[in-house]
Design goal:
alpha/beta, five-stranded antiparallel beta sheet, five-stranded parallel beta sheet, 9 helices, elongated
Length: 273
């Protein structure tokens, strides 16, 4: 049983899904489950193992799923009596802990040019698994791509099968031309990802959206695209564009509002100088 739970967690993390392990630490009196029981649940609600079943397990799993996005571990404690929170009549007490596991974030960059190069450089220290997709194999030897997860020497449509799509995947389209851009968007739209955006001016962004809409993509789907990509903070150089892109990705990844730390402190009632 424990092996099944550990294999479940490992499999989910490998496939880019958040998951949680639930441990029953204390089990006193007449209660379901035994001390040390573990189970696991993923972000889609699939599970394995048990901490005893019944309303206890139902409520703990529910809480684990509700907290999955934020990912803050928590402990739980219940008295299994008729007037208790769970309205159970077992007569015992249980304590346990829920620990979350987040898979490593993937950064997929279509295009190994100047912006892709700088983006890989600034993203490396942040722990992203970096994938570069560009059919120009000679670019794979650039120092910026040393140590990345994978350099895929294929065009976007051909690279699709090697892209680790999932809720922890952030995708940047920065190819060398409109045709390859369209190919990259079409390879990704409809798949699972946390973020998809592309380089370009406002004019290019509008043209890109029009072309994709003409290909049958709905406004709802296209509304998820970050076009043009990045925060409006760069001077237009490849290095600063890369920082602006990564800043927006981190904002999405960490669920943050766009504000300065000074404004955050002022909002919390702190003094400013």
């Amino acid at each position: 049983m424990e092996t099944d739970v550990l294999e479940f967690l490992t499999d989910r993390l490998k496939t880019g899904r958040k998951c949680a392990m639930i441990l029953l630490e204390v089990n006193e009196g007449s209660t379901p489950g035994v001390t040390g029981s573990i189970m696991a649940v993923d972000s889609e609600g699939k599970r394995t193992g048990t901490i005893g079943g019944g309303n206890l397990e139902y409520q703990v799993v529910k809480r684990a799923l509700e907290g999955m996005k934020e990912g803050k571990h928590f402990g739980f404690e219940y008295s299994l009596v008729e007037k208790g929170e769970l309205a159970m009549v077992c007569g015992g007490d249980v304590k346990g802990f829920v620990k979350y596991f987040n898979p490593p974030s993937n950064l997929v960059i279509f295009g190994a040019g100047h912006v892709g190069e700088k983006l890989a450089e600034v993203a490396k220290p942040l722990g992203f698994n970096i994938y570069i997709a560009d059919d120009r194999e000679e670019y794979s030897s650039l120092p910026a791509y040393s140590g990345i997860k994978e350099y895929i020497s294929l065009k976007p449509s051909e690279a699709k099968s090697r892209i680790p799509f999932g809720e922890n995947t952030y995708i940047v389209v920065a190819t060398r031309g409109h045709v390859l851009d369209q190919e990259a968007y079409k390879a990704c739209l409809g798949e699972r990802y946390a973020y998809l955006g592309g380089l370009g001016s406002r004019k290019k962004a509008l043209e890109t959206l029009a072309l994709l809409k003409g290909s049958g993509y709905t406004d709802e789907v296209l509304g998820t695209l970050h076009l043009p990509i990045g925060l409006d903070i760069s001077n237009g150089s490849p290095a600063e564009i890369a920082v602006a892109i990564l800043a927006e990705i981190l904002q999405v990844k960490n669920g943050k509002e766009l504000r300065s730390m000074k404004d955050r402190m002022a909002g919390a009632g702190g003094a400013s100088r």
